[in-house]
Amino acid sequence: MPELDDKQPPGREGALTAGCLLLLVLVADVAAALLVVIVLAVRGLDRMDTGSGRTTTGAPALDWAPVLGFGALALALGVTAVVLLRIGHRVIGAVQLTLCVFPALHMLGYWL
Question: pTM for this structure?
Answer without folding.
Answer: 0.67
